[in-house]
Amino acid sequence: MSPNTTVDPGSARALTHRITLIAVGVVLVVSLLYGSYHVLAARSAALRATETELQQRASFYAGQISSGFREIQDQGATLARHPPVAGIVRAMADPRGMDPADGSSLSQWKDRLAVIMTNKIEVHPHFTQIRLILAEGDWREVVRVDRREGQLLRVPEADLQTKGTEPYLDRIQAIPETEPYFSRITYNREHGRRDGGPVTIRYVQPVRDAAGATVGALVFNADYAELLKAVRPGVLKNQSVAVVNSEGDYLLFQHGESSARFYHHTDSGFRPLPQAEALGSRLGKNSFADLDDELVYLSTVPMDPSQQVPAQFGVLTFGAREMLESNVTSVLLRHLMITLVLVGFAAGVTHVLASEVGSKFEALHRAVDQSHKRLGWTLRNMADGLVTISSDGIVEELNPAGEEMFGYSASEAAGQPLTRLMFSEDAIGHQSHVSKSRIGPHRTAMALNRVIYGRHKSGTRVPIEISVSRAELDGEIKFIGMVRDISERHEAQARMSDLVAQLRRSNEELDQFAYVASHDLKAPLRVIQNASQWLAADLEPHLTDDTRESLDLLKSRATRMEHLLNDLLEHSRIGRTDQAEEEVAGADFIQNLLGLLNVPKGMKLETEGFNTRRLPQMPLQVVILNLVSNAFKHHDREQGTVRLSLSQASDAWLFTVEDDGPGIPPEFHERVFQIFQTLRPRDELEGSGMGLAIVRKHVDLAGGELSLQSNGTRGTTFRLKWPRTSAGSQPKGLAA
What we know:
Blueprint: H1 9-81, H2 83-93, H3 106-123, E1 127-134, H4 136-139, E2 140-148, E3 151-154, H5 170-174, E4 181-182, E5 186-190, E6 193-208, E7 214-223, H6 224-229, E8 239-245, E9 250-254, E10 261-263, H7 274-278, E11 287-290, E12 294-300, E13 313-320, H8 322-325, H9 329-380, E14 385-390, E15 395-398, H10 400-406, H11 410-413, H12 424-427, H13 430-436, E16 444-446, E17 452-455, E18 461-473, E19 476-485, H14 487-520, H15 522-538, H16 545-573, E20 583-585, H17 586-596, E21 603-608, E22 614-616, H18 620-633, E23 640-648, E24 652-659, H19 691-702, E25 705-709, E26 716-723
Helix pairs in contact: 1-9, 2-3, 14-16, 15-16, 18-19
């Protein structure tokens, strides 16, 4: 030991304590092996007794739950056979609304079915709703009885809903011949949204007509928690019972609580039942588990395959571990006393010997620890990879950044040739290049004029930058390489090059398409139009109504194709042709718009906010013209109004085009902006389906925003935000 070295007494004591603990641990292991047989034997007997008790209780409750599901199934089958169900189906099929079988009216059959439903809900407390839903009319409810706040109510005709989009009807819609089934366990929904009602399981009983075709379904809604509470287990002291399913929902019965508590997996702050989570992989078979703090038995609820329940159910009965541990306490105490005596003796002897060893190793430990700390701190805090290499090209050290870069751990790389981190084309002649290079103590950058690739452990290429310096350590030459991963930069440059090339190719194809559309495709159409006119003139005396209609159809289709080509050509040129940046007064903007607009008879255009403004002429005029003309074109009444208004924000013009037409259903709000998309057949309303696609492209290139608002029943509003200074800054010829 060096005379200048000071020994930290705390470190020496720590080593002494560790050796003492090792000795104590050995004694403990021997003692535990000696006493384990007796302890395990006693515990095994207690465990078997506890398992038997928990198994019997769980199996009994599981059978009761299965009976509850079977009762719902029986009620569904029984109600489906009741005469009112078939009577309603027959009466609805009759144009007079009368049942041809016995002369009852549809209303009479509905009243009778409602009475039966009310009686069933009253007898079964867990039933919350029974409905007859027929497929006709998007699966509309025909008769429905609810339990609301303890009262049984028949839902009026006006409040009945269509349920065609509800998930619990997906199976019967996809497979009409399906057998009765239970739905997933979810919160109750009304009008497609949660209504604050209970967690519900639904039983769907198909309703078939006399020919056996599925025409609807009887749907039973049951309060899932109340259904399970019907088990009413007698919870003993230090025991609990839980009913769980494969989706994580559970109902917990605990000793001393007056009512069970139900937890659904979609509830805010839901926490899975720890015991159910531990046994979740075993759901589907009976199982016993000895968890950390409780003994648990899982009994799977037996379900008939015909019930088609979408989840698995199980009953967990569990009790405190003290039920088991109390039987082995006396055996454990005996062996504990023996163990304490042996441990005390071993600890005293070992402590004396370990004190001498600890003081001798302390100085060495301290020196090595300080060296490793300095080196580790340096390596961990370097952002770039660092590789130290011997003069003959062998890797000696690799820092954490280098490990991540090349995929090798420091231990894997150490002692391997540096060429392992290179590809063959770079590895050949590498050492001779290094020897001939003028690498000195200052860092020298390598291969500035090309990309160097490192070889990852997986065989992939890693683009890198390298700078190398030379040092001498104990008379040996060492090389230190600083490596920087430039993958992101390299990939970004490659992506940019690919995108520019793709965009140029796309624009060249658009140019070619525009040429074909304007020349090669229009010329045959004009020939067809002229030929049809000549035929009509030459053959007029011989034409019949059918042939004259065919010629008119030919001319209209040729005209439609010409309009379509013109719109396609206009769409492809958006953003690719220069347009004069001319501003006009708002009043002139409206006059120009009216000059281009064909306002049908009975329609009127109202404008507001244009008198004191100056607006860009093009392409804004094209956008507004398309929006306004669309409103007139698609109006479904002889009289209507389109309102065009303008307001101003700090950086944009805000336009609103509002009509009182038929509206656009929400599911078509995105579709109408796609090319060739129309909501009405072209035989009813002539059009190419390109107008709103042209609008959207102009708006996107200008950096504006366009939104559509309509409930699909009446009226549509387009809101346009057009920037005061256009944001389209892509070079000419690169617009997509």
